[in-house]
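Batch 3, record 17
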Amino acid sequence: MGESSAKIETRELDAYFGSNKAVKGIDIKVKANHATAIIGPSGCGKSTFIRCLNRMHEVVPGTRVTGEVLLEGEDIYSRGTNPVDVRRRVGMIFQKPNPFPNASIFDNVAYGLRMNGIRDKAFIQEQVERSLKQAALWDEVKDNLDASGVSISGGQQQRLCIARAMAIEPEVLLMDEPCSALDPIATSKIEDLIFDLKNDYTVIIVTHNMQQAARVADWTAFMYLGELIEFNKTKRLFENPEEELTERYITGRFG
Amino acid sequence: MNNDEGGPNDPVHNGWNPPSAKLDGLRETLNHLILTSDGRFQLFCGALAFSAVAIFAWVVGYLIEGAFPVLDSMGYKFFTGSTWSFDQGIFGALPFIGGTLYTSAVAMMIAVPISVGIAIFISEIAPKWIGTPLGFLVEMLAAVPSVVFGIWGIFTLRGFMRDQVEPFLQGSLGFLPFFEGRTFGIDKLSAAVILAIMIIPTISAISRDALKAVPTSQKEAALALGATRYEMVGTIALSYARSGIFGAAVLGLGRAVGETMAVTMVIGNVNSFSWSLLDPGQTLSSLIAANWWEAPSGTVQQSALIGVGLVLFVLMLAINVVGRILLSRVTKVGRVRVE
Ligand SMILES: Nc1ncnc2c1ncn2[C@@H]1O[C@H](COP(=O)(O)OP(=O)(O)O)[C@@H](O)[C@H]1O
Ligand SMILES: [Mg+2]
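Prediction for the assembled complex:
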Protein backbone atom coordinates (compact mmCIF):
# COMPACT_ATOMS: atom_id res chain seq x y z
CA MET A 1 0.00 0.00 0.00
CA GLY A 2 1.23 3.46 -0.82
CA GLU A 3 2.47 5.85 1.79
CA SER A 4 -0.37 8.28 1.12
CA SER A 5 -3.10 5.81 1.94
CA ALA A 6 -1.86 5.11 5.49
CA LYS A 7 -4.26 6.49 8.06
CA ILE A 8 -1.91 5.80 10.92
CA GLU A 9 1.74 5.04 10.59
CA THR A 10 4.32 4.48 13.30
CA ARG A 11 8.07 4.89 12.87
CA GLU A 12 10.50 3.29 15.31
CA LEU A 13 7.96 3.56 18.05
CA ASP A 14 9.27 2.72 21.52
CA ALA A 15 7.23 2.91 24.71
CA TYR A 16 8.55 2.63 28.25
CA PHE A 17 7.23 2.08 31.74
CA GLY A 18 10.07 3.59 33.74
CA SER A 19 13.10 1.80 32.33
CA ASN A 20 11.09 -1.18 31.10
CA LYS A 21 10.68 -1.02 27.33
CA ALA A 22 7.28 -2.51 26.55
CA VAL A 23 7.09 -1.58 22.85
CA LYS A 24 10.21 -1.93 20.75
CA GLY A 25 10.78 -0.14 17.49
CA ILE A 26 7.43 -0.75 15.85
CA ASP A 27 6.97 0.35 12.23
CA ILE A 28 3.50 -0.19 10.87
CA LYS A 29 1.17 1.41 8.34
CA VAL A 30 -2.54 1.05 8.94
CA LYS A 31 -4.92 1.66 6.07
CA ALA A 32 -7.96 3.89 6.35
CA ASN A 33 -11.40 2.27 6.56
CA HIS A 34 -10.07 -1.16 7.33
CA ALA A 35 -10.08 -3.22 10.48
CA THR A 36 -6.68 -4.23 11.73
CA ALA A 37 -6.25 -6.81 14.47
CA ILE A 38 -3.32 -7.01 16.85
CA ILE A 39 -2.67 -10.43 18.31
CA GLY A 40 0.02 -11.85 20.52
CA PRO A 41 0.52 -13.48 23.88
CA SER A 42 -0.53 -11.60 26.98
CA GLY A 43 2.04 -9.06 28.16
CA CYS A 44 3.61 -8.63 24.70
CA GLY A 45 2.77 -4.93 24.56
CA LYS A 46 -0.48 -4.85 22.53
CA SER A 47 -2.29 -2.52 24.92
CA THR A 48 0.75 -0.33 25.38
CA PHE A 49 1.15 -0.06 21.61
CA ILE A 50 -2.38 1.08 20.86
CA ARG A 51 -2.32 3.47 23.82
CA CYS A 52 0.57 5.19 22.07
CA LEU A 53 -1.69 5.84 19.09
CA ASN A 54 -3.95 8.29 20.98
CA ARG A 55 -1.42 9.52 23.52
CA MET A 56 -3.06 7.61 26.38
CA HIS A 57 0.21 5.91 27.29
CA GLU A 58 1.50 9.14 28.79
CA VAL A 59 -1.35 9.50 31.30
CA VAL A 60 0.31 6.76 33.36
CA PRO A 61 3.00 8.40 35.53
CA GLY A 62 6.59 7.46 34.74
CA THR A 63 5.99 6.48 31.11
CA ARG A 64 7.73 7.67 27.96
CA VAL A 65 7.32 7.33 24.19
CA THR A 66 9.93 7.83 21.47
CA GLY A 67 9.60 7.60 17.71
CA GLU A 68 6.80 8.92 15.55
CA VAL A 69 3.11 8.24 15.15
CA LEU A 70 1.77 9.83 11.98
CA LEU A 71 -1.95 10.48 11.78
CA GLU A 72 -2.59 11.31 8.14
CA GLY A 73 1.05 12.17 7.82
CA GLU A 74 1.30 14.43 10.85
CA ASP A 75 3.25 13.35 13.91
CA ILE A 76 0.91 13.35 16.91
CA TYR A 77 3.95 13.60 19.19
CA SER A 78 5.31 16.71 17.51
CA ARG A 79 5.91 19.70 19.72
CA GLY A 80 2.79 21.83 19.98
CA THR A 81 0.33 19.00 19.33
CA ASN A 82 -2.28 18.90 22.07
CA PRO A 83 -3.02 15.34 23.22
CA VAL A 84 -6.64 16.37 23.77
CA ASP A 85 -6.99 17.07 20.03
CA VAL A 86 -5.41 13.72 19.20
CA ARG A 87 -7.83 11.85 21.46
CA ARG A 88 -10.77 13.56 19.82
CA ARG A 89 -9.66 12.18 16.47
CA VAL A 90 -8.60 8.76 17.75
CA GLY A 91 -11.22 7.21 20.04
CA MET A 92 -10.67 4.30 22.38
CA ILE A 93 -12.71 1.39 23.76
CA PHE A 94 -11.30 -0.28 26.83
CA GLN A 95 -11.09 -3.89 27.88
CA LYS A 96 -13.65 -3.56 30.62
CA PRO A 97 -16.80 -1.54 29.85
CA ASN A 98 -16.41 1.74 31.73
CA PRO A 99 -19.57 3.83 31.37
CA PHE A 100 -19.93 6.67 33.86
CA PRO A 101 -22.13 5.33 36.68
CA ASN A 102 -23.37 8.73 37.85
CA ALA A 103 -24.48 9.74 34.38
CA SER A 104 -27.53 8.63 32.40
CA ILE A 105 -27.20 6.63 29.19
CA PHE A 106 -27.91 9.83 27.29
CA ASP A 107 -25.33 11.86 29.20
CA ASN A 108 -22.74 9.14 28.76
CA VAL A 109 -23.04 9.42 25.00
CA ALA A 110 -23.23 13.22 25.11
CA TYR A 111 -20.16 13.52 27.35
CA GLY A 112 -17.56 13.86 24.62
CA LEU A 113 -19.70 16.38 22.74
CA ARG A 114 -20.06 18.51 25.84
CA MET A 115 -16.35 18.29 26.54
CA ASN A 116 -15.88 19.62 23.03
CA GLY A 117 -17.88 22.69 23.92
CA ILE A 118 -21.01 21.73 22.01
CA ARG A 119 -24.10 23.24 23.64
CA ASP A 120 -26.66 22.94 20.82
CA LYS A 121 -29.29 20.68 22.39
CA ALA A 122 -30.89 19.59 19.13
CA PHE A 123 -27.51 18.66 17.70
CA ILE A 124 -26.55 16.70 20.83
CA GLN A 125 -29.89 14.88 20.72
CA GLU A 126 -29.36 13.99 17.09
CA GLN A 127 -25.80 12.87 17.62
CA VAL A 128 -26.69 10.71 20.65
CA GLU A 129 -29.42 8.94 18.68
CA ARG A 130 -27.18 8.44 15.66
CA SER A 131 -24.34 7.03 17.77
CA LEU A 132 -26.61 4.68 19.70
CA LYS A 133 -28.06 3.44 16.42
CA GLN A 134 -24.61 2.98 14.99
CA ALA A 135 -23.63 0.99 18.06
CA ALA A 136 -26.76 -1.18 17.60
CA LEU A 137 -28.02 -0.18 21.03
CA TRP A 138 -30.76 2.32 20.21
CA ASP A 139 -33.66 -0.12 20.12
CA GLU A 140 -32.69 -1.58 23.47
CA VAL A 141 -32.32 1.71 25.36
CA LYS A 142 -34.42 4.29 23.53
CA ASP A 143 -37.16 4.22 26.18
CA ASN A 144 -34.63 4.27 28.97
CA LEU A 145 -32.20 7.03 28.13
CA ASP A 146 -32.40 8.48 31.63
CA ALA A 147 -31.31 5.26 33.30
CA SER A 148 -27.81 5.07 34.73
CA GLY A 149 -25.01 4.03 32.40
CA VAL A 150 -24.38 0.98 34.57
CA SER A 151 -28.02 -0.16 34.79
CA ILE A 152 -27.70 -2.22 31.58
CA SER A 153 -25.96 -5.53 30.89
CA GLY A 154 -22.22 -5.83 30.35
CA GLY A 155 -22.59 -6.26 26.59
CA GLN A 156 -24.91 -3.27 26.40
CA GLN A 157 -22.45 -1.26 28.50
CA GLN A 158 -19.68 -2.01 26.05
CA ARG A 159 -21.87 -0.94 23.12
CA LEU A 160 -22.71 2.18 25.11
CA CYS A 161 -18.99 2.86 25.37
CA ILE A 162 -18.68 2.39 21.62
CA ALA A 163 -21.55 4.82 21.05
CA ARG A 164 -19.93 7.23 23.48
CA ALA A 165 -16.67 7.09 21.55
CA MET A 166 -18.40 7.49 18.19
CA ALA A 167 -20.50 10.49 19.20
CA ILE A 168 -17.56 12.83 18.68
CA GLU A 169 -16.97 11.30 15.22
CA PRO A 170 -13.39 10.16 15.59
CA GLU A 171 -11.52 9.01 12.51
CA VAL A 172 -9.89 6.03 14.17
CA LEU A 173 -11.31 3.67 16.79
CA LEU A 174 -8.87 1.77 19.00
CA MET A 175 -10.34 -1.24 20.80
CA ASP A 176 -8.44 -3.06 23.50
CA GLU A 177 -9.87 -6.57 23.82
CA PRO A 178 -13.40 -5.10 23.81
CA CYS A 179 -15.08 -8.49 24.22
CA SER A 180 -12.89 -10.10 26.83
CA ALA A 181 -15.39 -9.36 29.62
CA LEU A 182 -18.44 -10.40 27.59
CA ASP A 183 -20.40 -13.57 26.94
CA PRO A 184 -20.49 -15.17 23.44
CA ILE A 185 -23.78 -13.56 22.38
CA ALA A 186 -22.67 -10.08 23.40
CA THR A 187 -19.34 -10.78 21.74
CA SER A 188 -20.88 -11.68 18.42
CA LYS A 189 -22.98 -8.51 18.51
CA ILE A 190 -19.86 -6.42 18.97
CA GLU A 191 -18.07 -8.33 16.21
CA ASP A 192 -20.93 -7.60 13.79
CA LEU A 193 -20.69 -4.01 14.84
CA ILE A 194 -16.96 -3.81 14.17
CA PHE A 195 -17.59 -5.35 10.77
CA ASP A 196 -19.98 -2.50 9.94
CA LEU A 197 -17.86 0.20 11.52
CA LYS A 198 -14.87 -0.39 9.35
CA ASN A 199 -16.73 1.03 6.37
CA ASP A 200 -16.59 4.46 7.95
CA TYR A 201 -13.80 4.24 10.48
CA THR A 202 -10.30 2.95 10.74
CA VAL A 203 -10.54 0.27 13.40
CA ILE A 204 -7.61 -1.21 15.29
CA ILE A 205 -8.62 -4.02 17.60
CA VAL A 206 -6.46 -5.86 20.09
CA THR A 207 -7.63 -9.38 20.70
CA HIS A 208 -6.29 -12.50 22.33
CA ASN A 209 -8.83 -14.47 20.35
CA MET A 210 -7.47 -15.53 16.97
CA GLN A 211 -10.87 -16.56 15.63
CA GLN A 212 -12.08 -13.09 16.39
CA ALA A 213 -9.19 -11.55 14.50
CA ALA A 214 -9.91 -13.85 11.57
CA ARG A 215 -13.60 -12.90 11.60
CA VAL A 216 -13.39 -9.12 11.81
CA ALA A 217 -10.01 -7.95 10.56
CA ASP A 218 -8.67 -7.35 7.05
CA TRP A 219 -5.15 -7.03 8.32
CA THR A 220 -3.53 -8.64 11.33
CA ALA A 221 -0.38 -7.80 13.23
CA PHE A 222 1.38 -10.32 15.41
CA MET A 223 3.41 -8.95 18.32
CA TYR A 224 5.82 -10.80 20.54
CA LEU A 225 7.87 -9.43 23.44
CA GLY A 226 7.20 -5.83 22.45
CA GLU A 227 8.16 -6.28 18.80
CA LEU A 228 6.06 -6.45 15.68
CA ILE A 229 6.86 -9.87 14.23
CA GLU A 230 4.55 -9.95 11.24
CA PHE A 231 1.97 -7.68 9.67
CA ASN A 232 -0.03 -9.19 6.88
CA LYS A 233 -3.43 -9.67 5.31
CA THR A 234 -5.42 -11.62 7.88
CA LYS A 235 -6.04 -14.56 5.58
CA ARG A 236 -2.38 -14.75 4.66
CA LEU A 237 -1.20 -14.43 8.24
CA PHE A 238 -3.40 -17.26 9.43
CA GLU A 239 -3.07 -19.57 6.46
CA ASN A 240 0.46 -19.03 5.34
CA PRO A 241 2.49 -16.86 7.69
CA GLU A 242 5.88 -15.59 6.65
CA GLU A 243 7.48 -15.86 10.06
CA GLU A 244 8.09 -19.05 11.92
CA LEU A 245 7.23 -17.38 15.22
CA THR A 246 3.81 -16.41 13.85
CA GLU A 247 3.23 -19.93 12.64
CA ARG A 248 4.13 -21.35 16.02
CA TYR A 249 1.81 -18.90 17.78
CA ILE A 250 -1.24 -19.44 15.59
CA THR A 251 -0.87 -23.19 15.68
CA GLY A 252 -0.64 -23.11 19.44
CA ARG A 253 2.88 -24.51 19.55
CA PHE A 254 4.31 -21.79 21.68
CA GLY A 255 7.02 -22.53 24.21
CA MET B 1 -24.46 -2.49 61.10
CA ASN B 2 -21.55 -3.98 62.91
CA ASN B 3 -22.49 -7.63 62.99
CA ASP B 4 -19.13 -9.27 62.60
CA GLU B 5 -18.83 -10.37 66.22
CA GLY B 6 -20.66 -13.29 67.68
CA GLY B 7 -22.28 -11.67 70.69
CA PRO B 8 -25.31 -12.76 72.67
CA ASN B 9 -27.39 -12.10 69.55
CA ASP B 10 -25.40 -14.48 67.45
CA PRO B 11 -28.00 -16.83 65.95
CA VAL B 12 -25.61 -19.77 66.01
CA HIS B 13 -25.15 -19.57 69.77
CA ASN B 14 -28.68 -18.54 70.46
CA GLY B 15 -30.41 -21.64 69.15
CA TRP B 16 -32.79 -23.55 71.41
CA ASN B 17 -31.15 -26.09 73.67
CA PRO B 18 -32.68 -28.27 76.36
CA PRO B 19 -32.25 -26.54 79.77
CA SER B 20 -29.71 -29.03 81.03
CA ALA B 21 -27.64 -28.67 77.88
CA LYS B 22 -27.91 -24.92 78.23
CA LEU B 23 -26.56 -25.10 81.76
CA ASP B 24 -23.76 -27.37 80.66
CA GLY B 25 -22.93 -24.94 77.89
CA LEU B 26 -22.89 -22.04 80.33
CA ARG B 27 -20.65 -23.90 82.74
CA GLU B 28 -18.31 -24.77 79.90
CA THR B 29 -18.13 -21.17 78.75
CA LEU B 30 -17.47 -19.92 82.27
CA ASN B 31 -14.79 -22.52 82.82
CA HIS B 32 -13.17 -21.50 79.58
CA LEU B 33 -13.24 -17.82 80.46
CA ILE B 34 -11.92 -18.19 83.99
CA LEU B 35 -9.60 -21.16 83.83
CA THR B 36 -7.72 -20.78 80.55
CA SER B 37 -5.30 -17.97 79.78
CA ASP B 38 -6.95 -17.50 76.42
CA GLY B 39 -10.27 -17.16 78.19
CA ARG B 40 -8.95 -14.66 80.71
CA PHE B 41 -7.53 -12.59 77.86
CA GLN B 42 -10.92 -12.57 76.15
CA LEU B 43 -12.58 -11.56 79.39
CA PHE B 44 -10.06 -8.77 79.94
CA CYS B 45 -10.49 -7.34 76.44
CA GLY B 46 -14.25 -7.63 76.72
CA ALA B 47 -14.14 -5.70 79.98
CA LEU B 48 -12.07 -2.96 78.39
CA ALA B 49 -14.49 -2.71 75.49
CA PHE B 50 -17.48 -2.48 77.79
CA SER B 51 -15.78 0.10 79.98
CA ALA B 52 -15.87 2.48 76.98
CA VAL B 53 -19.62 1.94 76.74
CA ALA B 54 -19.95 2.45 80.49
CA ILE B 55 -18.05 5.74 80.39
CA PHE B 56 -20.22 6.95 77.51
CA ALA B 57 -23.34 6.15 79.53
CA TRP B 58 -21.83 7.78 82.61
CA VAL B 59 -21.13 11.04 80.74
CA VAL B 60 -24.58 11.14 79.18
CA GLY B 61 -26.15 10.40 82.55
CA TYR B 62 -24.13 13.16 84.19
CA LEU B 63 -25.13 15.67 81.51
CA ILE B 64 -28.81 14.86 81.78
CA GLU B 65 -28.80 14.88 85.56
CA GLY B 66 -26.72 18.05 85.74
CA ALA B 67 -28.90 19.85 83.21
CA PHE B 68 -32.11 18.90 84.99
CA PRO B 69 -32.39 21.98 87.30
CA VAL B 70 -32.06 24.48 84.45
CA LEU B 71 -34.42 22.54 82.20
CA ASP B 72 -36.86 22.40 85.10
CA SER B 73 -36.77 26.16 85.63
CA MET B 74 -36.51 27.32 81.99
CA GLY B 75 -38.45 24.62 80.14
CA TYR B 76 -38.21 24.74 76.34
CA LYS B 77 -37.13 28.40 76.64
CA PHE B 78 -33.68 27.05 77.49
CA PHE B 79 -33.36 26.15 73.80
CA THR B 80 -35.30 29.05 72.27
CA GLY B 81 -34.65 31.99 74.58
CA SER B 82 -32.07 34.56 73.58
CA THR B 83 -31.41 36.19 76.95
CA TRP B 84 -28.62 34.77 79.02
CA SER B 85 -28.03 36.36 82.42
CA PHE B 86 -26.15 34.76 85.25
CA ASP B 87 -27.32 37.49 87.64
CA GLN B 88 -31.02 37.30 86.84
CA GLY B 89 -30.94 33.53 86.45
CA ILE B 90 -32.36 33.62 82.89
CA PHE B 91 -30.83 31.09 80.57
CA GLY B 92 -31.65 31.00 76.87
CA ALA B 93 -28.99 29.17 74.89
CA LEU B 94 -30.15 30.25 71.42
CA PRO B 95 -27.38 32.86 70.90
CA PHE B 96 -24.76 30.17 71.47
CA ILE B 97 -26.47 27.59 69.29
CA GLY B 98 -26.55 30.33 66.65
CA GLY B 99 -22.96 31.37 67.32
CA THR B 100 -21.78 27.79 67.03
CA LEU B 101 -23.65 27.03 63.82
CA TYR B 102 -22.74 30.40 62.30
CA THR B 103 -19.00 30.28 62.96
CA SER B 104 -18.88 26.62 61.92
CA ALA B 105 -20.78 27.35 58.72
CA VAL B 106 -18.42 30.18 57.81
CA ALA B 107 -15.46 27.96 58.67
CA MET B 108 -16.87 25.35 56.28
CA MET B 109 -17.26 27.92 53.52
CA ILE B 110 -13.59 28.71 53.88
CA ALA B 111 -12.28 25.21 54.56
CA VAL B 112 -14.20 23.03 52.09
CA PRO B 113 -13.09 24.73 48.86
CA ILE B 114 -9.50 24.98 50.08
CA SER B 115 -9.49 21.35 51.22
CA VAL B 116 -10.98 20.05 47.97
CA GLY B 117 -8.41 22.12 46.08
CA ILE B 118 -5.60 20.60 48.15
CA ALA B 119 -7.05 17.12 47.64
CA ILE B 120 -7.28 17.58 43.86
CA PHE B 121 -3.76 18.98 43.72
CA ILE B 122 -2.32 16.07 45.69
CA SER B 123 -4.27 13.28 44.02
CA GLU B 124 -4.45 14.48 40.42
CA ILE B 125 -1.96 17.21 39.67
CA ALA B 126 1.20 17.12 41.76
CA PRO B 127 3.88 14.54 41.04
CA LYS B 128 4.35 12.06 43.87
CA TRP B 129 7.49 13.70 45.23
CA ILE B 130 5.56 16.91 45.87
CA GLY B 131 2.15 15.48 46.68
CA THR B 132 3.22 13.02 49.36
CA PRO B 133 5.20 15.47 51.54
CA LEU B 134 2.58 18.16 50.98
CA GLY B 135 -0.20 15.85 52.15
CA PHE B 136 1.88 14.95 55.17
CA LEU B 137 2.45 18.61 56.07
CA VAL B 138 -1.24 19.45 55.74
CA GLU B 139 -2.09 16.55 58.01
CA MET B 140 0.51 17.78 60.50
CA LEU B 141 -1.64 20.90 60.95
CA ALA B 142 -3.92 18.59 62.90
CA ALA B 143 -1.08 18.02 65.35
CA VAL B 144 -0.94 21.68 66.40
CA PRO B 145 -2.63 21.89 69.82
CA SER B 146 -5.76 23.96 69.98
CA VAL B 147 -4.33 26.28 72.63
CA VAL B 148 -1.35 26.98 70.39
CA PHE B 149 -3.71 28.02 67.60
CA GLY B 150 -5.41 30.22 70.19
CA ILE B 151 -2.17 31.95 71.17
CA TRP B 152 -1.21 32.36 67.52
CA GLY B 153 -4.68 33.68 66.89
CA ILE B 154 -4.42 36.36 69.58
CA PHE B 155 -0.92 37.53 68.80
CA THR B 156 -0.64 37.07 65.04
CA LEU B 157 -3.85 36.31 63.22
CA ARG B 158 -5.73 39.01 65.11
CA GLY B 159 -3.52 41.83 63.83
CA PHE B 160 -3.69 40.52 60.28
CA MET B 161 -7.49 40.27 60.43
CA ARG B 162 -7.86 43.70 62.03
CA ASP B 163 -5.45 45.56 59.76
CA GLN B 164 -5.76 43.75 56.43
CA VAL B 165 -8.64 41.33 55.96
CA GLU B 166 -11.44 43.11 57.79
CA PRO B 167 -10.83 46.60 56.35
CA PHE B 168 -10.70 45.00 52.91
CA LEU B 169 -13.97 43.10 53.46
CA GLN B 170 -15.63 46.20 54.82
CA GLY B 171 -14.37 48.26 51.92
CA SER B 172 -15.68 45.87 49.28
CA LEU B 173 -18.65 44.17 50.96
CA GLY B 174 -19.41 46.58 53.81
CA PHE B 175 -22.97 47.08 52.57
CA LEU B 176 -23.77 43.51 53.66
CA PRO B 177 -24.96 42.97 57.23
CA PHE B 178 -22.21 40.38 57.67
CA PHE B 179 -19.47 42.98 57.67
CA GLU B 180 -20.89 45.78 59.82
CA GLY B 181 -19.25 47.31 62.86
CA ARG B 182 -15.73 47.94 64.02
CA THR B 183 -12.79 45.97 62.75
CA PHE B 184 -11.28 44.61 65.89
CA GLY B 185 -9.80 41.22 65.06
CA ILE B 186 -11.27 39.48 68.10
CA ASP B 187 -14.55 38.35 66.62
CA LYS B 188 -16.53 35.62 64.88
CA LEU B 189 -14.59 35.97 61.64
CA SER B 190 -11.27 35.29 63.37
CA ALA B 191 -12.85 32.32 65.14
CA ALA B 192 -14.13 30.98 61.82
CA VAL B 193 -10.72 31.38 60.18
CA ILE B 194 -9.01 29.48 63.00
CA LEU B 195 -11.68 26.78 62.85
CA ALA B 196 -11.16 26.52 59.09
CA ILE B 197 -7.43 26.04 59.56
CA MET B 198 -8.11 23.38 62.16
CA ILE B 199 -10.50 21.33 60.01
CA ILE B 200 -8.64 21.59 56.70
CA PRO B 201 -6.41 18.58 57.56
CA THR B 202 -9.43 16.33 58.18
CA ILE B 203 -11.40 17.40 55.15
CA SER B 204 -8.49 17.43 52.73
CA ALA B 205 -7.15 14.04 53.84
CA ILE B 206 -10.49 12.24 53.50
CA SER B 207 -11.31 14.03 50.24
CA ARG B 208 -7.93 13.05 48.87
CA ASP B 209 -8.60 9.40 49.74
CA ALA B 210 -12.01 9.63 48.08
CA LEU B 211 -10.44 11.08 44.93
CA LYS B 212 -7.69 8.48 44.93
CA ALA B 213 -10.38 5.79 45.06
CA VAL B 214 -11.85 6.90 41.71
CA PRO B 215 -11.07 4.01 39.34
CA THR B 216 -8.41 4.67 36.73
CA SER B 217 -10.80 3.25 34.13
CA GLN B 218 -13.23 6.11 34.83
CA LYS B 219 -10.57 8.78 34.54
CA GLU B 220 -9.16 7.23 31.37
CA ALA B 221 -12.63 7.02 29.83
CA ALA B 222 -12.99 10.78 30.22
CA LEU B 223 -9.50 11.57 28.98
CA ALA B 224 -9.90 9.31 25.96
CA LEU B 225 -13.03 11.26 25.00
CA GLY B 226 -10.99 14.43 24.73
CA ALA B 227 -11.56 15.84 28.20
CA THR B 228 -8.68 17.83 29.63
CA ARG B 229 -7.37 16.73 33.01
CA TYR B 230 -9.17 19.71 34.53
CA GLU B 231 -12.47 18.75 32.86
CA MET B 232 -12.00 15.13 33.87
CA VAL B 233 -11.61 16.09 37.54
CA GLY B 234 -14.54 18.50 37.42
CA THR B 235 -16.99 16.16 35.72
CA ILE B 236 -15.99 12.58 36.53
CA ALA B 237 -13.64 12.38 39.51
CA LEU B 238 -15.53 14.84 41.72
CA SER B 239 -18.84 13.24 40.83
CA TYR B 240 -17.51 9.79 41.65
CA ALA B 241 -15.96 11.01 44.93
CA ARG B 242 -18.77 13.33 45.94
CA SER B 243 -20.22 11.33 48.80
CA GLY B 244 -16.74 10.83 50.25
CA ILE B 245 -16.08 14.54 50.06
CA PHE B 246 -19.46 15.26 51.60
CA GLY B 247 -18.73 12.85 54.44
CA ALA B 248 -15.35 14.51 54.94
CA ALA B 249 -17.03 17.89 55.19
CA VAL B 250 -19.51 16.60 57.76
CA LEU B 251 -16.73 15.15 59.91
CA GLY B 252 -14.90 18.47 59.64
CA LEU B 253 -18.08 20.21 60.71
CA GLY B 254 -18.28 17.92 63.72
CA ARG B 255 -14.82 18.99 64.74
CA ALA B 256 -15.55 22.69 64.19
CA VAL B 257 -18.73 22.57 66.26
CA GLY B 258 -16.97 21.07 69.26
CA GLU B 259 -13.70 23.00 69.07
CA THR B 260 -13.24 24.96 72.28
CA MET B 261 -9.91 26.39 73.29
CA ALA B 262 -8.80 28.35 70.25
CA VAL B 263 -12.32 29.68 69.67
CA THR B 264 -12.67 30.79 73.29
CA MET B 265 -9.45 32.76 72.93
CA VAL B 266 -10.34 34.70 69.77
CA ILE B 267 -14.13 35.00 69.59
CA GLY B 268 -14.49 37.84 72.11
CA ASN B 269 -16.89 36.07 74.51
CA VAL B 270 -19.94 38.29 74.16
CA ASN B 271 -23.17 36.53 75.16
CA SER B 272 -25.35 37.64 72.31
CA PHE B 273 -25.76 36.78 68.66
CA SER B 274 -25.36 39.11 65.71
CA TRP B 275 -25.05 38.48 62.00
CA SER B 276 -21.97 40.64 61.65
CA LEU B 277 -18.87 38.50 61.52
CA LEU B 278 -16.90 41.51 62.75
CA ASP B 279 -18.77 41.45 66.07
CA PRO B 280 -17.55 39.29 68.91
CA GLY B 281 -19.77 36.38 69.89
CA GLN B 282 -19.91 33.13 71.78
CA THR B 283 -20.27 29.46 70.92
CA LEU B 284 -21.67 26.68 73.09
CA SER B 285 -18.20 25.42 73.91
CA SER B 286 -16.58 28.83 74.43
CA LEU B 287 -19.42 29.81 76.77
CA ILE B 288 -18.70 26.85 79.02
CA ALA B 289 -14.94 27.38 78.94
CA ALA B 290 -15.18 31.11 79.60
CA ASN B 291 -17.72 30.89 82.44
CA TRP B 292 -17.11 27.64 84.23
CA TRP B 293 -15.16 29.13 87.16
CA GLU B 294 -17.86 31.74 87.78
CA ALA B 295 -20.56 29.14 88.30
CA PRO B 296 -20.34 27.62 91.78
CA SER B 297 -21.05 23.98 92.22
CA GLY B 298 -24.69 23.05 92.74
CA THR B 299 -26.10 26.33 91.46
CA VAL B 300 -28.55 26.75 88.62
CA GLN B 301 -25.80 28.69 86.86
CA GLN B 302 -23.68 25.59 86.77
CA SER B 303 -26.66 23.53 85.69
CA ALA B 304 -27.17 25.97 82.82
CA LEU B 305 -23.61 25.43 81.61
CA ILE B 306 -24.05 21.66 81.85
CA GLY B 307 -27.26 22.03 79.84
CA VAL B 308 -25.28 23.89 77.18
CA GLY B 309 -22.85 20.98 77.23
CA LEU B 310 -25.76 18.61 76.65
CA VAL B 311 -26.93 20.62 73.65
CA LEU B 312 -23.41 20.61 72.25
CA PHE B 313 -23.11 16.89 72.80
CA VAL B 314 -26.36 16.10 70.99
CA LEU B 315 -25.38 18.39 68.10
CA MET B 316 -21.97 16.77 67.67
CA LEU B 317 -23.38 13.28 68.03
CA ALA B 318 -25.87 13.95 65.25
CA ILE B 319 -23.22 15.42 62.95
CA ASN B 320 -20.78 12.58 63.55
CA VAL B 321 -23.38 9.88 63.04
CA VAL B 322 -24.45 11.45 59.75
CA GLY B 323 -20.81 11.78 58.67
CA ARG B 324 -20.00 8.17 59.49
CA ILE B 325 -23.07 6.87 57.70
CA LEU B 326 -22.15 8.84 54.60
CA LEU B 327 -18.57 7.57 54.67
CA SER B 328 -19.58 3.96 55.28
CA ARG B 329 -21.90 4.15 52.31
CA VAL B 330 -19.02 5.40 50.20
CA THR B 331 -16.77 2.51 51.10
CA LYS B 332 -19.61 0.09 50.46
CA VAL B 333 -20.14 1.53 47.00
CA GLY B 334 -16.40 1.33 46.48
CA ARG B 335 -16.44 -2.33 47.38
CA VAL B 336 -19.17 -3.14 44.88
CA ARG B 337 -17.34 -1.33 42.11
CA VAL B 338 -14.00 -2.87 42.84
CA GLU B 339 -11.91 -3.17 39.68
N1 LIG C 1 0.89 0.22 34.35
C1 LIG C 1 2.03 -0.45 34.09
N2 LIG C 1 3.15 -0.21 34.80
C2 LIG C 1 4.29 -0.88 34.56
N3 LIG C 1 4.44 -1.81 33.61
C3 LIG C 1 3.36 -2.09 32.84
C4 LIG C 1 2.10 -1.44 33.05
N4 LIG C 1 1.21 -1.92 32.15
C5 LIG C 1 1.89 -2.83 31.42
N5 LIG C 1 3.17 -2.94 31.82
C6 LIG C 1 4.19 -3.84 31.27
O1 LIG C 1 4.28 -3.62 29.88
C7 LIG C 1 4.32 -4.84 29.18
C8 LIG C 1 3.25 -4.87 28.12
O2 LIG C 1 1.99 -4.85 28.72
P1 LIG C 1 0.64 -4.73 27.90
O3 LIG C 1 0.83 -3.69 26.87
O4 LIG C 1 -0.45 -4.52 28.86
O5 LIG C 1 0.53 -6.16 27.21
P2 LIG C 1 -0.72 -6.84 26.50
O6 LIG C 1 -1.77 -5.83 26.31
O7 LIG C 1 -0.16 -7.39 25.22
O8 LIG C 1 -1.16 -7.97 27.38
C9 LIG C 1 4.18 -5.95 30.18
O9 LIG C 1 5.46 -6.54 30.36
C10 LIG C 1 3.75 -5.29 31.44
O10 LIG C 1 4.40 -5.86 32.56
MG1 LIG D 1 -3.67 -5.77 27.13
